[in-house]
Amino acid sequence: MTIFNDLSLLQAFVAIVESGSLSAAARKLNLSQPTLSRQLRSLEDQCGTALLRRDTHRMSLTDMGHQFLADAQALLALAEESEQRMRRDQSALSGNIRVFSTIDFGQSVVSRMISSFIQAHPAVRMELAYSNRPLHMIEEGCDAGIVAGALTDDRVVARALGEIRRYPVASPAFLKDHKFVSKPENLRALPWIALSSRQFGGSRDVTLYSEAATHTLQIEPVMISEGVTSMREAARMGLGLAVLPEWLVEEDLMSGRLVRVLPKWQAKPLAAQIVYPVQRRLPLRVQAFIEFATEYMTTVLKPR
């Protein structure tokens, strides 16, 4: 233990010097005079030397007291500045927020969402990283992440943002060459483009749902990708069928570049979530971002 471990002793010493007497310092600190005297003695005992000369009429600093006063004032000023900075950090929408997302969702929907948040709060700065390993990114110090698929872990809070609709789609040219596509079982033997990660809906088994039935296909993909954007490009080229999220292909469906295969059928939707550390105290700016993301996603995703 050192003399600098207890800031209250430093505050007592500085108050005595600046007030000019023990009684005045005691009133300033709202302490009894005997308590303040004990604190001064404790500080001098730890220093191993007298810091103040005291007699019945006046009080003055020793040579060591002069040196110690400057150090104590500097340390107390630094502590106060740090405390004020942390209070501002907790109470103001300013500072830096580190967010991560999967690359496809991050480069489109999440990027637009972050832009809207910064425009609403110009003093905030944000970093966007990409990763398919959400827990790794939380451990690396990210404040929050936008993830798709199921995620259960005691180290993070997962807050639902809605569901990502997913449809089997293909290009008009592909469907023209495969006119017999009229029911789910017809799709099994066709060329497929698949997603590699099971967490984000990738699988060699494709399950499709209608209002009245469920059908599971075992497929042999001609192309497997880690990202849905590359799958969309391959589907546009007429390479095969692909199950793709609505947020990615909405414009393609409207323009006719892609077409829903069996429009009454869709793939199982994926949960979208915002995750953040369970044990970390969140600054106000991060709390505000989480609330903003939850509201923003209602305009993009289907509520759960």
TrEMBL record:
Residues in HTH lysR-type domain copies: 5-62
Domain of life: Bacteria
Cited CDD domains: PBP2_CrgA_like (cd08422)
Source organism: Paraburkholderia hiiakae
InterPro entries: LysR-type_TF_proteobact-type, LysR_HTH_N, LysR_subst-bd, WH-like_DNA-bd_sf, WH_DNA-bd_sf
Family designation: Belongs to the LysR transcriptional regulatory family.
Keywords: DNA-binding, Transcription, Transcription regulation
Recorded name of the encoding gene: dmlR_8
The keyword Transcription appears for this protein: yes
Protein name: HTH-type transcriptional regulator DmlR
Matching SUPFAM superfamilies: Periplasmic binding protein-like II, Winged helix' DNA-binding domain
